[in-house]
Amino acid sequence: MTSPPSPNGADRSGYTFPGVGQIFWRGVTKRCPRCGSGHLYRRYLSLVPDCPRCGLHFEREDGYWGGALAVNIAIVMAIFIVTFVGIMIATVPDVPVGLSLLILVPIMVLGPVVFYPYSKTIWMAVDYGFLQKVSGKA
Length: 138
Ligand SMILES: [Zn+2]
Description:
mainly alpha, two-stranded antiparallel ribbon, 2 strands, elongated, binds zinc ion
């Protein structure tokens, strides 16, 4: 049985939960969702296992990064759809197929790599700020 969050909003480690906007911003800027510390990546794709400041362990269970995969797909698909619709609106009825592919294919190939580290920290923010707080597991 898990204990509910303390009345002052702090988690079990003593860190006070920031607001929803701040948690999301920490995810977007590749920072720890609990303390806001940066430097979470050794290299572009290599996330440290624990936060260097507060010690929050990031991969809480097997399969944890499946949520980051969903975030990555959502970000890249949103960019693809906005770009695709923008090209369609700007060029109908003479849609340049070759130019469209020249723009859209790199988005789908490079987008997942570019947004990989951001998708992990955004997923950590969603998990920490919403799922753990609501369930009282933080
Ligand atoms: Zn931290």
